[in-house]
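Input sequence (308 aa), recorded before submission:
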Amino acid sequence: MAEEKRVIGAETKHPLNGILSLPDEREGVVPAVVLVHGSGPSNMDAKVGNVAFFKDLAEGLSVNGIAVLRYDKRTYIYGKEMKSDPSLTVKEETIEDTLLAVNLLRQDPRIDQNKIFIIGHSFGGMLAPRIDAEGGNFAGIIIMAGSPRKLEEIMMDQNNEVLKSLNRLLRKIADKQVAALASKFDNIYHLTDEEAKSTPVLGKYLRAYYFKEMGEHPSANYLKDIDKPLLIMQGEKDVQASIEKDFYGYKNILSEHPNKTFKLYPNLNHVFMTSIYGDIRKVRKEFKVSQNVEKQVIKDITDWILAI
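Predicted structure, token format:
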């Protein structure tokens, strides 16, 4: 495997450092994937604690003949500047940079232009169908631990799951906070865009407009119009995504799709590594344990891409 430094959006106000991983041995052009981050600021390796999810994917796929482009997320580098923007949406946070990254791949003569794929993880998986529709034009879409639901629905489910684990006193206090958040989410789609831009939802900076704009472009709508190959993957011990509502939610939406593949992995967590605690309250603790993406996951992605 060879690694080459790349800059995503070099001519824009928000250039981002990236790495293109290439197979050492190449005969002609090779297929490629662009990696799209989950929620929150993240570097190009998607490093959390002592695990580096994107680095593992890039190395594993490159060794197997597939080029991989990964890069720092815009909020990781420019977060302080971006958080004060009331008009911030997933376009500025994620979509624009993914499209710039894809264009870099399309300009590289070593890449098979008919075999450029997207791998969206978690939040990135939620956005992957929209990115495809807004200019990605991928040969296929891989969604890892994603969801066809709205972001606020997922957040409320996660909060309610934590509530169940609290003692009676703490639950009473937290329940009021969760109810207040639910009330804010319920009102989002009744606001005008301008009202939403001036309405904080989480903390001082994350405004209703961010959720409203994303919610008005639901993943399910894009999925219904897609006829290209889709690979949906999730770990059975993923405590951040729901098997019933997310993995099987995709199955329901895609029931008539002619070219979909579903993979559910026993005992793997949100980043497709061995589950240790299986507890949403201990996610950060789990990521402090150094481990790697399960080899079968890398193999399944490789086989799926090379078969297209």
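Checked by second reader. DSSP finds twelve helices and twelve strands in the chain.
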